[in-house]
Amino acid sequence: MIFFFRLFVLITGIFLTAIIAGNVTRAEDNIRIGVLAAMTGPYAEYGLEAKRGAELALAEFDGHVSGKNIELIFETDDGAPARVAARAQALISEHGAQIIIGPLSGGEGPVLKNFAKSAPAITFLNGASAARDLTLLDPAPNFFRFTTDAAQWMAGLGRYSYIDKGYRRVVTLGENFSFPYTQVMGFLVEFCSLGGSVAEQFWLPLSDKPYAAITAQIMNVEADAIFIALDGSNTANFLEQYWKDGGQLPIIGGSVTFDPALLSSNSLYHTYLPGAISASPLADGDQARGWLSFVAAYQDRYPSGARIPSIFAVDYYVNTKAALLALEDADSDLTDGQTALRQALAELSFDTPTGRVSLDENRHAVANNYVIEVVLGEDKRLRNEVAYVATRVDQTLGMGRERYLALGAPGPNTPSCP
User: What is the mean pLDDT of the chain?
Assistant: First the structure.
């Protein structure tokens, strides 16, 4: 009896050891990627789009790379920018994330960059932050960005406005914070370099906006067009007031100016918007095979999602795919401070839904940008068409680092353009 009891204990011990060893092996076979894109709070809808983009990228690899399972861990916080470092730390310490993809918004970018410097064992890739200084100034050596910034999102628009549209003098209108500053700067750098000038600049408060007062002032300014760096809802409110007051200047838009809802709205838009132009890192009128394939995959996987994938879905897809491609090149080796992974990321160049992307010396994207024109189709519906593609746009907009930095930080008077 004692013999059988000892045999039972021995077999049980071997069995448990095998289970533990198996669990350890399975744990080692997993790579955990933390995704900073909150699913609750004010950024919830954007976070959902980011989640879709990251999942689409992983689906292309069937969930594993170089024999290792890839697990995406999505945060559950509300996305408050002030807490982005704490949210990243939670993904690392509580969930074992070895790679972080994020953040979502521009305000979070510089904060996460500084956190990355304090977490050198982790590799970070951008989510959708378009903050210029995330990679331009004092970059973190373990932070990579395969998507462009808010100034690059304007590439080609100044050229198209001046050469193709014949505009020489513009009014600019934007809200008084960093993203519109950067968009206006990106537009003016190109427009002014060709000989264009600014008649007057208007900066609106983030609270209640005096549209009637602004339109009255614009009506008294001599200009060829208005550059509007507002989001879709604010654009709608401004344009309706401007057109009501008799304004007729052509419209130039930033990357978030022409919300799709505007293109299906009332007759005012059908009368005044055709011929309006804007620029963006993606274009829903793009007929390139890569974009159409991506849209089809998105719609197939998420039939209740957006009609067209948003910038958040595209950016998280691109940065997640970059991480997976680099893991593949590095044979999923995360030892030695993730050196092999980071070397692979630095050298990576690949085709995205919007064209080929590679990195500069600051680990920032060099990629295409799209100038888009609103047209009225034969079906009497407004739609976007790609009018021009600015290829291989770098972060200094072709000026070179020294000249670009000499312009100063984006602000209400930067750049100077008489």
Answer: 91
First vs last C-alpha separation in the chain: 100
Per-residue pLDDT tens digits for 44-63: 999 999 999 999 999 999 99
Q: For residues 366 and 5, give the distance between their C-alpha atoms in angstroms, rounded to a whole number.
A: 69
Backbone CA torsion sign across 322, 324, 328, 333: positive
Q: Which residues of 323-358 are buried (b: 16+ CB within 10 A; e: fewer)?
A: bbbbbebbebebeeebebbbebbeebeeebbbbebe
> Pairing state of beta strands 64-65 and 355-359?
unpaired
pLDDT for residue 392? 97
Helix, strand or coil for residue 351? strand
Say whether pLDDT at 15 is over 50. Answer: no
CA–CA gap between residue 39 and residue 50 (Å, rounded): 9
Q: For residues 131 and 155, is the Cβ–Cβ distance under 8 A?
A: no
68-84 confidence digits (pLDDT tens): 999 999 998 887 888 99
Q: Average pLDDT of 386-400? A: 97
Q: From residue 407, how far is each of 59, 155, 180, 414, 415 by CA, in Å?
A: 43, 17, 16, 7, 6
Q: Does residue 24 register a pLDDT over 70?
A: no
- Cα separation, 128 vs 135, in Å, equals 13
Count CA atoms within 13 Å of residue 142 on its CB side: 20
- Answer positive or negative: Cα dihedral of 188, 189, 191, 195: positive
Q: What structural domains and CATH numbers belong to the chain? A: 26-147+287-366 (3.40.50.2300), 152-280+377-406 (3.40.50.2300)
The arithmetic mean of pLDDT across residues 145-149, rounded, is 98
| Closest C-alpha to 175, from 230, 103, 214 | 230
Nearest CA to 153 among 128, 122, 170?
Answer: 128
Contact 169, 222 (CB under 8 A): yes
Q: What is the dihedral of CA 232, 235, 237, 243, to 10 degrees?
A: -140
Overall residue count recorded for the chain in this entry: 418
DSSP 399-415: S-HHHHHHT-SSBTTBS
Tokens matching residue 163? 């050469």
With cut-offs at 50, 70 and 90, classify the pLDDT of residue 28: low
The C-alpha atoms of residue 385 and residue 274 are separated, in whole angstroms, by 11
Q: Write out the two tokens for 168.
A: 């020489």
CA angle 42, 46, 50 (to 5 degrees): 140
